[in-house]
Design a protein that fits this description.
α3 (147-161) runs antiparallel to α4. The longest helix is centred in the first third of the chain and has 20 residues, at 9-28. By secondary structure, the chain is α+β, with helices and mostly antiparallel strands. The strands form 2 sheets. Strands 2-5-6-9-8-7 form a 6-stranded antiparallel β-sheet, with helices on one face. Strands 1-3-4 form a 3-stranded mixed β-sheet. The N and C termini lie far apart (117 Å). The chain has 4 helices and 9 strands; from the N terminus they run ααββββββααβββ. The protein is globular and about 50 Å long. The protein has helices at residues 9-28, 61-70, 147-161, 165-177, and strands at 72-76, 97-99, 106-111, 116-121, 123-127, 137-144, 182-186, 196-204, 210-217. β8 and β9 form a beta hairpin. Helices cover 26% and strands 25% of the residues.
Length: 220
Amino acid sequence: MSAPRRAAAPGGGAAVVIALLPILVLTGCQAPTPAPADPTAATSPSAGSTMKTSSFSTLDAAGVENIRATRTARLDMGSGRLEKDAVRVTRDSFGPEINTRDSGRISLSILAPNGEITAETDRIRFNTTDTRTDFSEVTYFLTASSAEEYFELIRDGVQRYGISAESAEEWISSTQADPAARSDFSITPGTDTGLTVNYDLRYDGSKDTQVIIVHILPAA
């Protein structure tokens, strides 16, 4: 006598359970949906961006090459000093000399604690020692092709940086009286910008080009 048909029901139930297992396993192993990416993460400095955000020049080899190529130099002395690490040079570095007399002038700007110092120059020097963390002086050269142009450069420094007007005008009057003279004279410095700006006059009436050596010293 054959067994009742319903005796096969347990086997059929097991088949149903086995058939469901792949679905349960797949469901349990599904990876979580990732959180939306932060659209600001790639550009935020705190996210490790390597993009250059400063408009100021550096004085390492690449920075000097960029100054020569662009004929533009911008230095940050807003704190009253030019720190070596801020321009990417080592503490024992004496800094570069940038000379473009054969290729054109550099548009130089120096951010000062009060305002800005600007010039068109073909020579910039940096003075320091191997133990200082900053530069003791930034020096650049101004040139003029006539006595009148030279006097205008001096008067411009008086107006913009607080260089002594009395000292400047006395020297100009003396030179106008004897334009062929030769004179090395340092005008009383100005401090209106929060930095010390000194015009060191190197005048020789027998030459076609007259020179002013401008010394920028850190705030006292």
